[in-house]
Amino acid sequence: MIKLSQAHILGTIIAYLLGIFIVPCVIYYSKKVGLVDVPNERKIHHGKISRLGGVAIWLSVMLTFFFLILLSYYPKGQGLSAIITGGSLMFLMGFIDDVYCLNAKFKLFIQIAIATIVILLGVRIETLYNPWGANIDLGWFSYPITLLWIVGITNAINFIDGIDGLAGSIVSISSLAIGIISIVLAPVTSINALMAFILMGAVFAFLTFNYNPAKIFMGDSGALYTGFLLATLSVNGVVKYTGGISMYLPILILAVPMMDVAYSSIRRIMKGISPFVADAEHIHHKLLHAGLSQDKLVLLLAGFSMVCALLSIFVVTTKSKFIIGALSLIGVLLVLNIVSKLIKKKEN
Questions:
Q1: Where are the domains of the chain?
Q2: Which residue blocks in the chain are alpha helix, DSSP H?
Q3: pTM here?
Q4: What is the pLDDT of residues 310-332, one digit of tens each?
């Protein structure tokens, strides 16, 4: 049964209201000092748009968290220091990148360092569910697998942040799913669900100004910060508190960014190009070239993400987990087939 507490509801509302106030201030400030995104051959927007959306999201999340503490809603559960500290460090690196444009390999090194700190603080994948026998204890493999997940999802959100409203929609939907599933799986440890709902409220406020035509972009600070939170909250709130098939639900919840990062990385490697070199050939670019408008594209991918999120919630609230898991896989394959046909149709 899903039971939202006052903290969950208040956290969402406070984060949203703070965001509605903070985002316009950030837009004004970034335009005043020239921290804007200028169109080029890889960008599809027109005009100079603020690229400091991450500042508004981070401020909204952190201020909401401290307001709840003042209201005596201090969250319980392990992983709080790792999520707060690691998230803030990831935001700081993204902010510096938004201002000074850091080298891609250097950014990856810093991301690995931050993820390592978080893993050492206890946010790690320690076992894997095995449907044919006893669960697999990862041992020393816990570090590389958790590292790959955190760094991979963090960058996956950054990869899909190329269309007005897309990354924000995926993050808010994923946050909702992770928050609800965390409540169902581990109602006693409220930190994961609370942080997920706070993030959802903050991103909802950001989306008010980010839908086409956008007045502000997430920037690396926002994309890396939200991606990091989704990665760590999914591990700390879902993977660690289930010994069954439910531990794989984050893969379903984050299907859209995972498909894009896998597609982009494989395509670049096959072309002999570094997977860290930015280009304009992500899935959303391909679909735009196939004739979809920005609004229809966001509706398609966000709709697919919502279906995945709902299926993941059904998995933890019903007993027919294998049936739903099979249906989820079929749905993912069908969407992949539709997307590939759209891309091939345009290329031909």
A1: 6-347
A2: 6-33, 53-70, 80-100, 104-120, 142-160, 166-185, 191-208, 219-237, 249-253, 255-270, 283-289, 294-317, 321-347
A3: 0.88
A4: 888 888 877 555 555 555 566 66
